[in-house]
Amino acid sequence: MAKAKKNVFHESKEPKGLPVIRGYDFNKGVNHTAIVDSFANTGFQASQLSEAIKIINEMRKSKCKIILGYTSNMVTSGLRDIFRYLTEHKMVDIIVTTGGGIEEDIIKCLGNFYLGDFTADGAELRKQGINRAGNIFIPNQRYIDFEKFIQPILKDLLTEQKEGNKIASPSEIIWKLGKAIDNKESIYYWAQKNKIPVYCPAIIDGSIGDMVYFFNTNNNLLIDTAQDLKKFNDEVIFAKKTGIIILGGGLVKHHICNANMLRNGADYAVYINTHQEYDGSDAGARPDEAVSWGKILPDAKMVKVYGDATILFPLIVAETFAK
To answer: What are phi and psi of 51, to 5 degrees?
Structure first.
């Protein structure tokens, strides 16, 4: 018994120089900025979120080249409007996303998406022509309208290819889409207006790809992804400093990190995703794994926040870019 008691009541040393864990005191009323500030000492992912806010503010003060990456589902959600805000006000220097992250911004200019239910019956939705992305419903009419919108643009690109011997890159196509939609609610309207490059190495993985496939039934439209690879890598390599903010994983995360490997690593890095690293995926990899590849500098300010970006990113923007 004495030994068991000794094991349980093993004496400890008091940690020195570490913050004390403490949460927000609602006796002081409701102050949303103070609540977010309190995350610094709350612990767990709240403190990781606080660190992300601190790092992004340092990015901005250092005037480094800020690269924002997001997966397509982020644009499906209401985060699209936050990305538009950042682009409209020239708060990011480069955007990297996937095919859905392009087309769904344009499609939202043509018609609404709706809040549905995660548990909605797929077979019944199919009968109604409703596509479900999580708990967001997208009427298939949106894609019919998108097809009508994009056809003249594809024809123009083919004309440039045939008559001008010019093969367009994805970033050029994205600016054309943004100019053609001519809608201030669009991310890519502001990207082309403010000359913010948008790189999408998987532009044909989605509805745009479907449209190119049907168009090429009788044509041979080409898209030059190699041109964009050089442009993106050159921008990153020759930047004095780079800061990366990546929402989600997959191709977007790897594309951004790989470009930074060519300059021996980013100076700042913030990851926000729900992925774990147990399977060795790049999506689940923490920033310190990227250090081993030379994708992030060893002395960089870096953090990974585990969580849903639709909750976390608005809080981050409120305490950084918008502030």
So the answer is: -65, -40
What domains can you pick out in the chain, each with its CATH number? 56-110+167-318 (3.40.910.10)
DSSP states of 45-96? HHHHHHHHHHHHHHHHHHTPEEEEEE-HHHHHTTHHHHHHHHHHTT--SEEE
CB 103 within 8 A of CB 80: no
pLDDT in tens, 162-200: 999 999 999 999 999 999 999 999 999 999 999 999 999
Q: Which helix (H) or strand (E) holds 176?
A: helix 170-181
The pTM is what?
A: 0.97
| Both tokens assigned to 93 | 């220097």
pLDDT tens sequence across 27-36 = 999 999 999 9
Give the distance from CA 256 to its chain's centroid: 11
Catalytic residue annotation: 295
Task: For 223-277, write each residue's pLDDT tens digit.
Answer: 999 999 999 999 999 999 999 999 999 999 999 999 999 999 999 999 999 999 9
